Amino acid sequence: MKNKSRITLLPLNQSFEVEEGSQLHDVLFTYGVEFPCGGHARCRGCRIRINEGTLPITAPQKQILSDKEIEEGWRLACQGEVQADLVIELDQWKSDILSDDSSFQFIPMDGLGIAIDLGTTTLAAQLIDRTTGEVLAIETAINPQARFGGDIMTRIDAATRLKRQNEMQRMIRVQLYGMITELFESSKRSKSDLKRIIIVGNAVMHNIFCGLDVTPMGFHPFEPISNNLEIFSPKDLEWDLDGNVSIEFLPGVGSFIGSDILVGAWVQSMSESDEVRVLVDLGTNGEIMVGNREKILTASTAAGPAFEGAGISMGMRAATGAISTVTLKNGEIVPKILGAKSPRGICGSGLVDAVSAYLDMGLIKADGRFLDGESIMVMDPVMITQKDIRELQLAKGAIATGIRLLLHELGSSEDDVEEVYLSGAFGNYISKRSSRRIGLLNFPQKRITTAGNTALLGAKKALFNEQKINHFYSLRKITEHLDLSMHPDFTEVFAELVNFPQK
Known about the structure:
Layout: E1 4-10, E2 14-19, H1 24-28, E3 47-52, H2 59-64, H3 67-71, E4 74-76, E5 86-89, E6 112-118, E7 122-129, E8 135-142, H4 152-160, H5 165-187, E9 194-201, H6 203-210, E10 230-232, H7 234-237, E11 246-249, H8 259-267, E12 276-282, E13 286-291, E14 296-301, H9 304-307, E15 322-329, E16 332-337, E17 345-346, H10 348-361, E18 375-379, E19 382-385, H11 386-409, E20 417-423, H12 424-429, H13 432-437, E21 448-452, H14 454-462, H15 471-477, E22 479-481, H16 490-497
Parallel strand pairs: 1-5, 6-9, 9-11, 12-20, 14-22, 15-17, 20-21
Antiparallel strand pairs: 1-2, 3-4, 3-5, 6-7, 7-8, 10-11, 12-13, 13-14, 15-16, 18-19
Helix pairs in contact: 8-14, 8-15, 11-16
Protein backbone atom coordinates (compact mmCIF):
# COMPACT_ATOMS: atom_id res chain seq x y z
CA MET A 1 0.00 0.00 0.00
CA LYS A 2 1.38 3.40 -0.99
CA ASN A 3 1.95 6.12 1.58
CA LYS A 4 -0.29 9.18 1.54
CA SER A 5 0.75 12.82 1.42
CA ARG A 6 -1.41 15.78 2.40
CA ILE A 7 -1.79 18.70 0.02
CA THR A 8 -3.12 22.05 1.22
CA LEU A 9 -4.22 24.65 -1.32
CA LEU A 10 -4.09 28.37 -0.60
CA PRO A 11 -6.02 30.65 -0.63
CA LEU A 12 -8.77 28.01 -0.81
CA ASN A 13 -7.77 26.47 2.52
CA GLN A 14 -8.67 23.06 1.15
CA SER A 15 -6.73 19.96 2.15
CA PHE A 16 -6.80 16.42 0.85
CA GLU A 17 -4.63 13.34 0.69
CA VAL A 18 -3.15 11.71 -2.39
CA GLU A 19 -0.87 8.76 -2.91
CA GLU A 20 2.83 9.54 -2.98
CA GLY A 21 3.99 9.50 -6.57
CA SER A 22 0.79 11.17 -7.82
CA GLN A 23 1.28 13.71 -10.59
CA LEU A 24 0.27 17.27 -9.71
CA HIS A 25 -0.86 17.59 -13.32
CA ASP A 26 -3.77 15.27 -12.50
CA VAL A 27 -4.39 16.46 -8.96
CA LEU A 28 -4.60 20.23 -9.50
CA PHE A 29 -6.64 20.46 -12.68
CA THR A 30 -9.87 20.18 -10.68
CA TYR A 31 -8.85 23.21 -8.62
CA GLY A 32 -8.41 25.66 -11.48
CA VAL A 33 -4.82 25.10 -12.55
CA GLU A 34 -4.68 25.07 -16.33
CA PHE A 35 -2.24 23.26 -18.61
CA PRO A 36 -2.34 25.19 -21.92
CA CYS A 37 0.52 23.24 -23.51
CA GLY A 38 -0.79 19.90 -22.33
CA GLY A 39 1.71 19.51 -19.49
CA HIS A 40 4.83 19.54 -21.65
CA ALA A 41 6.62 22.42 -19.87
CA ARG A 42 6.42 24.68 -22.90
CA CYS A 43 4.57 27.54 -21.21
CA ARG A 44 3.95 29.12 -17.78
CA GLY A 45 0.21 28.47 -17.62
CA CYS A 46 0.40 26.02 -14.68
CA ARG A 47 2.71 28.05 -12.43
CA ILE A 48 2.23 27.42 -8.69
CA ARG A 49 4.14 28.42 -5.58
CA ILE A 50 5.36 25.92 -2.97
CA ASN A 51 4.92 27.54 0.46
CA GLU A 52 5.79 24.45 2.49
CA GLY A 53 7.39 21.20 1.43
CA THR A 54 9.66 20.43 -1.48
CA LEU A 55 9.05 19.98 -5.17
CA PRO A 56 12.27 19.21 -7.08
CA ILE A 57 13.43 21.45 -9.91
CA THR A 58 13.46 19.71 -13.28
CA ALA A 59 15.49 20.75 -16.30
CA PRO A 60 12.43 21.97 -18.29
CA GLN A 61 11.46 24.27 -15.40
CA LYS A 62 14.88 25.91 -15.49
CA GLN A 63 14.22 26.79 -19.12
CA ILE A 64 10.84 28.39 -18.37
CA LEU A 65 11.20 29.96 -14.91
CA SER A 66 13.71 32.62 -13.94
CA ASP A 67 16.24 32.05 -11.15
CA LYS A 68 14.34 34.58 -9.03
CA GLU A 69 11.04 32.74 -9.51
CA ILE A 70 12.58 29.41 -8.60
CA GLU A 71 14.17 30.95 -5.50
CA GLU A 72 10.75 32.35 -4.49
CA GLY A 73 9.24 28.86 -4.68
CA TRP A 74 7.55 28.98 -8.07
CA ARG A 75 7.22 25.71 -9.94
CA LEU A 76 5.39 24.26 -12.95
CA ALA A 77 2.61 21.97 -11.75
CA CYS A 78 2.97 19.81 -14.86
CA GLN A 79 6.47 18.83 -13.71
CA GLY A 80 5.54 17.98 -10.13
CA GLU A 81 5.36 14.56 -8.49
CA VAL A 82 4.06 14.37 -4.92
CA GLN A 83 6.67 12.88 -2.56
CA ALA A 84 5.73 14.56 0.73
CA ASP A 85 3.22 16.97 2.31
CA LEU A 86 2.85 20.22 0.38
CA VAL A 87 1.29 23.63 0.96
CA ILE A 88 0.64 25.12 -2.47
CA GLU A 89 -0.39 28.65 -3.31
CA LEU A 90 -2.53 28.93 -6.40
CA ASP A 91 -4.94 31.48 -7.83
CA GLN A 92 -8.36 29.87 -7.96
CA TRP A 93 -10.50 31.68 -10.45
CA LYS A 94 -14.00 31.63 -11.77
CA SER A 95 -14.32 31.98 -15.51
CA ASP A 96 -17.47 33.13 -17.23
CA ILE A 97 -18.46 30.57 -19.87
CA LEU A 98 -20.49 31.89 -22.77
CA SER A 99 -24.03 30.52 -22.79
CA ASP A 100 -26.99 31.74 -24.84
CA ASP A 101 -30.31 33.45 -24.15
CA SER A 102 -31.32 34.26 -27.74
CA SER A 103 -34.86 33.78 -28.97
CA PHE A 104 -35.59 31.84 -32.14
CA GLN A 105 -38.53 30.59 -34.15
CA PHE A 106 -39.62 26.97 -33.70
CA ILE A 107 -42.49 24.57 -34.13
CA PRO A 108 -43.59 23.27 -30.68
CA MET A 109 -42.88 19.62 -29.96
CA ASP A 110 -43.52 17.27 -27.05
CA GLY A 111 -41.13 16.70 -24.20
CA LEU A 112 -37.77 18.11 -23.19
CA GLY A 113 -34.53 18.52 -25.11
CA ILE A 114 -30.93 19.23 -24.15
CA ALA A 115 -28.56 21.33 -26.27
CA ILE A 116 -24.81 20.91 -25.66
CA ASP A 117 -21.91 22.98 -26.97
CA LEU A 118 -18.86 20.73 -26.55
CA GLY A 119 -15.98 23.17 -26.86
CA THR A 120 -12.26 22.53 -26.71
CA THR A 121 -12.00 24.59 -23.53
CA THR A 122 -15.53 25.02 -22.20
CA LEU A 123 -18.82 23.14 -22.07
CA ALA A 124 -22.32 24.60 -22.04
CA ALA A 125 -25.61 22.70 -21.74
CA GLN A 126 -29.22 23.90 -21.61
CA LEU A 127 -32.41 22.02 -20.78
CA ILE A 128 -35.22 23.15 -23.10
CA ASP A 129 -38.99 22.76 -22.83
CA ARG A 130 -39.85 21.93 -26.44
CA THR A 131 -43.49 22.93 -26.04
CA THR A 132 -42.60 26.53 -25.12
CA GLY A 133 -38.94 26.97 -26.08
CA GLU A 134 -38.18 27.99 -22.49
CA VAL A 135 -34.70 27.39 -21.09
CA LEU A 136 -35.33 25.49 -17.85
CA ALA A 137 -31.75 25.12 -16.62
CA ILE A 138 -28.18 25.91 -17.65
CA GLU A 139 -24.91 24.14 -16.77
CA THR A 140 -21.39 25.18 -17.75
CA ALA A 141 -18.01 23.65 -17.04
CA ILE A 142 -14.41 23.43 -18.16
CA ASN A 143 -13.75 20.59 -20.57
CA PRO A 144 -11.85 18.04 -18.43
CA GLN A 145 -9.72 17.16 -21.45
CA ALA A 146 -8.07 20.58 -21.03
CA ARG A 147 -5.56 18.97 -18.68
CA PHE A 148 -4.09 17.39 -21.83
CA GLY A 149 -3.62 20.72 -23.58
CA GLY A 150 -5.23 24.03 -24.40
CA ASP A 151 -5.78 23.50 -28.14
CA ILE A 152 -6.82 20.77 -30.52
CA MET A 153 -3.31 19.87 -31.69
CA THR A 154 -2.12 19.15 -28.15
CA ARG A 155 -5.28 17.04 -27.65
CA ILE A 156 -4.48 15.09 -30.78
CA ASP A 157 -0.92 14.59 -29.56
CA ALA A 158 -2.17 13.33 -26.19
CA ALA A 159 -4.68 11.04 -27.87
CA THR A 160 -2.22 9.52 -30.31
CA ARG A 161 1.36 9.74 -29.07
CA LEU A 162 0.43 9.36 -25.40
CA LYS A 163 -2.36 6.85 -26.13
CA ARG A 164 -4.91 8.76 -24.02
CA GLN A 165 -7.87 8.91 -26.43
CA ASN A 166 -9.93 6.29 -24.60
CA GLU A 167 -9.38 8.14 -21.35
CA MET A 168 -10.31 11.45 -22.95
CA GLN A 169 -13.49 9.91 -24.36
CA ARG A 170 -14.47 8.51 -20.98
CA MET A 171 -13.78 11.85 -19.26
CA ILE A 172 -16.00 13.89 -21.56
CA ARG A 173 -18.85 11.39 -21.53
CA VAL A 174 -18.81 11.26 -17.73
CA GLN A 175 -18.62 15.07 -17.51
CA LEU A 176 -21.53 15.63 -19.87
CA TYR A 177 -23.73 13.08 -18.13
CA GLY A 178 -22.96 14.78 -14.82
CA MET A 179 -24.07 18.10 -16.32
CA ILE A 180 -27.25 16.48 -17.66
CA THR A 181 -28.01 15.15 -14.18
CA GLU A 182 -27.50 18.63 -12.72
CA LEU A 183 -29.86 20.12 -15.30
CA PHE A 184 -32.68 17.90 -14.09
CA GLU A 185 -31.87 18.36 -10.42
CA SER A 186 -31.86 22.16 -10.67
CA SER A 187 -35.00 22.32 -12.82
CA LYS A 188 -36.96 19.77 -10.76
CA ARG A 189 -38.06 18.14 -14.02
CA SER A 190 -38.17 14.42 -14.72
CA LYS A 191 -35.65 12.63 -16.92
CA SER A 192 -38.55 10.56 -18.25
CA ASP A 193 -39.70 13.62 -20.24
CA LEU A 194 -36.42 13.88 -22.14
CA LYS A 195 -36.75 13.12 -25.86
CA ARG A 196 -33.62 14.37 -27.60
CA ILE A 197 -30.06 15.56 -26.98
CA ILE A 198 -28.17 17.56 -29.62
CA ILE A 199 -24.38 17.96 -29.31
CA VAL A 200 -22.22 20.24 -31.45
CA GLY A 201 -18.46 20.70 -31.48
CA ASN A 202 -15.39 20.87 -33.67
CA ALA A 203 -14.16 17.82 -35.55
CA VAL A 204 -11.63 16.76 -32.90
CA MET A 205 -14.18 16.97 -30.09
CA HIS A 206 -16.64 15.11 -32.34
CA ASN A 207 -14.22 12.26 -33.05
CA ILE A 208 -13.03 11.85 -29.46
CA PHE A 209 -16.57 11.79 -28.08
CA CYS A 210 -17.76 9.38 -30.78
CA GLY A 211 -14.80 7.02 -30.41
CA LEU A 212 -13.25 7.67 -33.84
CA ASP A 213 -9.46 7.51 -34.10
CA VAL A 214 -8.09 11.08 -34.36
CA THR A 215 -4.67 9.99 -35.68
CA PRO A 216 -5.33 11.18 -39.27
CA MET A 217 -6.05 14.68 -37.94
CA GLY A 218 -2.48 15.00 -36.69
CA PHE A 219 -0.93 15.34 -40.13
CA HIS A 220 -1.75 16.85 -43.53
CA PRO A 221 -4.41 17.01 -44.90
CA PHE A 222 -5.82 16.85 -41.32
CA GLU A 223 -8.96 15.03 -42.39
CA PRO A 224 -10.96 13.03 -39.82
CA ILE A 225 -11.99 9.43 -40.41
CA SER A 226 -15.57 10.69 -40.24
CA ASN A 227 -17.25 14.01 -39.65
CA ASN A 228 -20.77 12.69 -40.17
CA LEU A 229 -23.89 12.61 -38.01
CA GLU A 230 -23.43 10.12 -35.16
CA ILE A 231 -26.49 8.88 -33.25
CA PHE A 232 -26.28 7.11 -29.89
CA SER A 233 -28.64 5.51 -27.44
CA PRO A 234 -28.19 6.16 -23.69
CA LYS A 235 -26.99 2.55 -23.38
CA ASP A 236 -24.19 3.23 -25.88
CA LEU A 237 -22.86 5.99 -23.62
CA GLU A 238 -23.70 4.33 -20.30
CA TRP A 239 -26.03 7.21 -19.47
CA ASP A 240 -28.91 6.45 -17.13
CA LEU A 241 -31.69 7.84 -19.32
CA ASP A 242 -34.81 6.45 -20.96
CA GLY A 243 -33.80 4.09 -23.74
CA ASN A 244 -35.82 6.00 -26.35
CA VAL A 245 -33.81 9.23 -25.95
CA SER A 246 -31.98 10.09 -29.18
CA ILE A 247 -28.46 11.50 -28.67
CA GLU A 248 -27.10 13.14 -31.82
CA PHE A 249 -23.68 14.63 -32.48
CA LEU A 250 -24.27 16.83 -35.52
CA PRO A 251 -21.88 16.55 -38.50
CA GLY A 252 -19.19 18.89 -39.76
CA VAL A 253 -17.72 19.47 -43.22
CA GLY A 254 -14.05 18.53 -43.31
CA SER A 255 -10.70 18.88 -41.58
CA PHE A 256 -11.23 20.85 -38.34
CA ILE A 257 -14.56 22.36 -39.42
CA GLY A 258 -17.18 20.86 -37.14
CA SER A 259 -20.86 21.21 -36.42
CA ASP A 260 -20.30 24.10 -34.01
CA ILE A 261 -19.49 26.64 -36.71
CA LEU A 262 -21.91 25.06 -39.19
CA VAL A 263 -24.91 25.57 -36.91
CA GLY A 264 -23.56 29.07 -36.26
CA ALA A 265 -23.86 29.85 -39.97
CA TRP A 266 -27.27 28.20 -39.97
CA VAL A 267 -28.74 30.42 -37.22
CA GLN A 268 -27.31 33.50 -38.96
CA SER A 269 -29.19 32.44 -42.15
CA MET A 270 -26.08 32.56 -44.34
CA SER A 271 -27.56 30.05 -46.78
CA GLU A 272 -30.68 32.21 -47.17
CA SER A 273 -28.88 35.48 -47.90
CA ASP A 274 -28.41 37.02 -51.32
CA GLU A 275 -25.53 39.11 -49.98
CA VAL A 276 -22.15 37.77 -48.85
CA ARG A 277 -21.81 37.25 -45.11
CA VAL A 278 -18.83 36.27 -42.96
CA LEU A 279 -18.86 34.26 -39.74
CA VAL A 280 -15.67 34.14 -37.66
CA ASP A 281 -15.53 31.88 -34.62
CA LEU A 282 -12.77 33.18 -32.37
CA GLY A 283 -12.63 30.50 -29.71
CA THR A 284 -9.80 28.13 -28.91
CA ASN A 285 -9.60 27.50 -32.65
CA GLY A 286 -10.08 30.05 -35.41
CA GLU A 287 -12.73 29.07 -37.95
CA ILE A 288 -14.13 31.12 -40.81
CA MET A 289 -17.16 30.81 -43.10
CA VAL A 290 -18.00 33.14 -45.98
CA GLY A 291 -20.78 32.98 -48.53
CA ASN A 292 -24.47 33.27 -49.35
CA ARG A 293 -27.33 31.14 -50.66
CA GLU A 294 -25.30 30.06 -53.70
CA LYS A 295 -22.12 28.83 -52.06
CA ILE A 296 -20.34 28.85 -48.70
CA LEU A 297 -16.60 28.36 -48.19
CA THR A 298 -15.00 27.54 -44.87
CA ALA A 299 -11.51 27.15 -43.43
CA SER A 300 -9.74 26.82 -40.09
CA THR A 301 -6.61 28.51 -38.77
CA ALA A 302 -4.27 27.94 -35.85
CA ALA A 303 -5.10 31.35 -34.41
CA GLY A 304 -7.35 30.72 -31.44
CA PRO A 305 -4.86 29.84 -28.67
CA ALA A 306 -3.14 33.23 -28.83
CA PHE A 307 -6.48 35.02 -28.64
CA GLU A 308 -7.31 33.05 -25.48
CA GLY A 309 -3.97 33.74 -23.83
CA ALA A 310 -2.08 30.57 -24.73
CA GLY A 311 1.45 31.23 -25.95
CA ILE A 312 1.42 34.73 -24.38
CA SER A 313 4.00 35.19 -21.61
CA MET A 314 1.43 36.37 -19.06
CA GLY A 315 -1.63 35.24 -20.96
CA MET A 316 -4.69 33.61 -19.38
CA ARG A 317 -8.37 33.05 -20.07
CA ALA A 318 -10.90 35.77 -19.36
CA ALA A 319 -11.17 34.98 -15.66
CA THR A 320 -10.59 36.56 -12.27
CA GLY A 321 -7.38 38.57 -12.27
CA ALA A 322 -7.20 38.99 -16.04
CA ILE A 323 -6.77 42.38 -17.68
CA SER A 324 -9.77 42.19 -19.98
CA THR A 325 -9.94 45.63 -21.56
CA VAL A 326 -7.51 48.50 -22.04
CA THR A 327 -8.56 52.02 -22.96
CA LEU A 328 -6.52 55.09 -23.82
CA LYS A 329 -7.58 58.23 -21.95
CA ASN A 330 -5.69 61.50 -22.16
CA GLY A 331 -2.62 59.65 -23.37
CA GLU A 332 -2.68 57.19 -20.45
CA ILE A 333 -3.35 53.46 -20.45
CA VAL A 334 -6.37 52.48 -18.30
CA PRO A 335 -6.68 48.69 -17.78
CA LYS A 336 -9.78 46.91 -16.44
CA ILE A 337 -9.28 43.79 -14.30
CA LEU A 338 -11.86 41.05 -13.97
CA GLY A 339 -13.00 40.50 -10.38
CA ALA A 340 -9.83 41.63 -8.63
CA LYS A 341 -7.84 44.72 -7.65
CA SER A 342 -4.50 43.43 -8.87
CA PRO A 343 -3.90 41.68 -12.19
CA ARG A 344 -2.17 38.36 -12.59
CA GLY A 345 -2.31 38.12 -16.37
CA ILE A 346 -3.90 39.37 -19.55
CA CYS A 347 -6.57 37.69 -21.68
CA GLY A 348 -7.01 37.91 -25.44
CA SER A 349 -9.36 40.90 -25.50
CA GLY A 350 -7.05 42.81 -23.17
CA LEU A 351 -4.04 42.01 -25.33
CA VAL A 352 -5.79 43.22 -28.49
CA ASP A 353 -6.89 46.42 -26.71
CA ALA A 354 -3.40 47.05 -25.31
CA VAL A 355 -1.67 46.58 -28.66
CA SER A 356 -4.27 48.81 -30.32
CA ALA A 357 -3.59 51.54 -27.76
CA TYR A 358 0.18 51.24 -28.07
CA LEU A 359 -0.12 51.46 -31.86
CA ASP A 360 -2.09 54.69 -31.46
CA MET A 361 0.57 55.99 -29.06
CA GLY A 362 3.35 55.13 -31.48
CA LEU A 363 5.02 52.76 -29.02
CA ILE A 364 4.58 49.82 -31.39
CA LYS A 365 5.53 50.09 -35.06
CA ALA A 366 3.53 48.68 -37.96
CA ASP A 367 5.97 45.77 -38.25
CA GLY A 368 5.31 44.89 -34.59
CA ARG A 369 8.58 46.08 -33.12
CA PHE A 370 8.61 48.19 -29.98
CA LEU A 371 9.78 51.76 -30.40
CA ASP A 372 12.05 51.19 -27.41
CA GLY A 373 13.02 48.09 -25.45
CA GLU A 374 11.77 44.50 -25.55
CA SER A 375 8.63 44.78 -23.40
CA ILE A 376 5.93 47.17 -22.18
CA MET A 377 4.40 47.13 -18.69
CA VAL A 378 0.61 47.24 -18.96
CA MET A 379 0.01 47.17 -15.22
CA ASP A 380 2.47 45.82 -12.69
CA PRO A 381 3.33 42.94 -12.85
CA VAL A 382 1.70 42.27 -16.23
CA MET A 383 3.79 43.08 -19.24
CA ILE A 384 3.72 42.40 -22.96
CA THR A 385 6.89 41.13 -24.61
CA GLN A 386 8.17 41.30 -28.16
CA LYS A 387 7.40 37.59 -28.50
CA ASP A 388 3.79 38.25 -27.42
CA ILE A 389 3.43 40.83 -30.18
CA ARG A 390 4.70 38.31 -32.71
CA GLU A 391 2.24 35.67 -31.48
CA LEU A 392 -0.63 38.15 -31.88
CA GLN A 393 0.56 39.13 -35.35
CA LEU A 394 0.66 35.49 -36.45
CA ALA A 395 -2.82 34.85 -35.05
CA LYS A 396 -4.52 37.92 -36.48
CA GLY A 397 -2.62 37.55 -39.74
CA ALA A 398 -3.90 33.98 -40.13
CA ILE A 399 -7.53 35.04 -39.59
CA ALA A 400 -7.30 38.08 -41.89
CA THR A 401 -5.58 36.00 -44.58
CA GLY A 402 -8.21 33.28 -44.30
CA ILE A 403 -11.05 35.77 -44.75
CA ARG A 404 -9.43 37.41 -47.77
CA LEU A 405 -8.60 34.13 -49.52
CA LEU A 406 -12.07 32.67 -48.96
CA LEU A 407 -13.65 35.84 -50.31
CA HIS A 408 -11.30 35.75 -53.30
CA GLU A 409 -12.26 32.12 -54.05
CA LEU A 410 -15.90 33.21 -53.85
CA GLY A 411 -15.22 35.97 -56.35
CA SER A 412 -15.74 38.70 -53.76
CA SER A 413 -13.78 41.14 -51.60
CA GLU A 414 -14.13 42.82 -48.20
CA ASP A 415 -16.17 45.60 -49.86
CA ASP A 416 -18.85 43.10 -50.94
CA VAL A 417 -19.55 41.79 -47.42
CA GLU A 418 -22.91 42.79 -45.97
CA GLU A 419 -22.26 41.69 -42.39
CA VAL A 420 -19.56 40.05 -40.29
CA TYR A 421 -20.61 37.90 -37.33
CA LEU A 422 -18.22 37.30 -34.44
CA SER A 423 -18.98 34.20 -32.42
CA GLY A 424 -17.17 32.15 -29.79
CA ALA A 425 -15.85 33.08 -26.37
CA PHE A 426 -13.22 35.53 -27.58
CA GLY A 427 -15.40 36.94 -30.33
CA ASN A 428 -18.00 37.90 -27.72
CA TYR A 429 -15.61 40.17 -25.80
CA ILE A 430 -13.23 41.65 -28.34
CA SER A 431 -13.54 45.36 -29.11
CA LYS A 432 -14.64 46.03 -32.67
CA ARG A 433 -12.45 49.11 -32.84
CA SER A 434 -9.39 47.31 -31.52
CA SER A 435 -9.93 44.38 -33.89
CA ARG A 436 -9.94 46.83 -36.80
CA ARG A 437 -6.94 48.75 -35.48
CA ILE A 438 -4.69 45.68 -35.36
CA GLY A 439 -5.92 44.47 -38.77
CA LEU A 440 -7.81 41.42 -37.57
CA LEU A 441 -11.08 42.49 -39.21
CA ASN A 442 -10.74 44.80 -42.17
CA PHE A 443 -14.37 45.87 -42.25
CA PRO A 444 -16.25 49.01 -41.12
CA GLN A 445 -17.38 48.69 -37.50
CA LYS A 446 -21.03 49.08 -38.46
CA ARG A 447 -20.84 45.82 -40.41
CA ILE A 448 -19.45 43.81 -37.46
CA THR A 449 -21.95 42.09 -35.16
CA THR A 450 -21.22 40.24 -31.93
CA ALA A 451 -23.26 37.06 -32.31
CA GLY A 452 -22.68 35.32 -28.95
CA ASN A 453 -22.64 31.54 -28.62
CA THR A 454 -24.06 30.65 -32.02
CA ALA A 455 -23.04 27.00 -31.52
CA LEU A 456 -25.30 26.57 -28.49
CA LEU A 457 -28.11 28.51 -30.17
CA GLY A 458 -27.83 26.25 -33.20
CA ALA A 459 -27.93 23.13 -31.03
CA LYS A 460 -31.12 24.43 -29.38
CA LYS A 461 -32.71 25.18 -32.74
CA ALA A 462 -31.83 21.68 -33.97
CA LEU A 463 -33.84 20.18 -31.10
CA PHE A 464 -36.97 21.27 -32.96
CA ASN A 465 -36.03 19.99 -36.40
CA GLU A 466 -36.01 16.60 -38.05
CA GLN A 467 -33.22 15.81 -40.49
CA LYS A 468 -35.46 15.65 -43.56
CA ILE A 469 -36.70 19.22 -43.08
CA ASN A 470 -33.66 20.62 -41.27
CA HIS A 471 -32.15 23.49 -43.22
CA PHE A 472 -28.89 22.83 -41.37
CA TYR A 473 -28.32 19.90 -43.70
CA SER A 474 -29.18 22.04 -46.71
CA LEU A 475 -26.51 24.51 -45.64
CA ARG A 476 -24.02 21.68 -45.17
CA LYS A 477 -24.58 20.54 -48.76
CA ILE A 478 -23.50 23.89 -50.23
CA THR A 479 -20.53 24.30 -47.85
CA GLU A 480 -17.04 23.49 -49.10
CA HIS A 481 -13.87 23.25 -47.01
CA LEU A 482 -10.73 25.02 -48.28
CA ASP A 483 -7.23 24.03 -47.14
CA LEU A 484 -5.57 27.42 -46.68
CA SER A 485 -2.09 25.93 -46.28
CA MET A 486 -2.25 24.67 -49.89
CA HIS A 487 -3.54 27.91 -51.40
CA PRO A 488 -0.96 29.33 -53.85
CA ASP A 489 -1.49 32.90 -52.62
CA PHE A 490 -1.37 32.15 -48.88
CA THR A 491 2.26 33.17 -48.27
CA GLU A 492 1.98 36.40 -50.24
CA VAL A 493 -1.30 37.50 -48.63
CA PHE A 494 -0.15 36.50 -45.15
CA ALA A 495 3.07 38.50 -45.56
CA GLU A 496 0.92 41.54 -46.43
CA LEU A 497 -1.56 41.14 -43.56
CA VAL A 498 0.72 40.01 -40.74
CA ASN A 499 1.84 43.59 -40.10
CA PHE A 500 -0.36 46.10 -38.30
CA PRO A 501 -2.15 48.76 -40.38
CA GLN A 502 -0.65 52.23 -40.51
CA LYS A 503 -2.66 54.70 -38.42
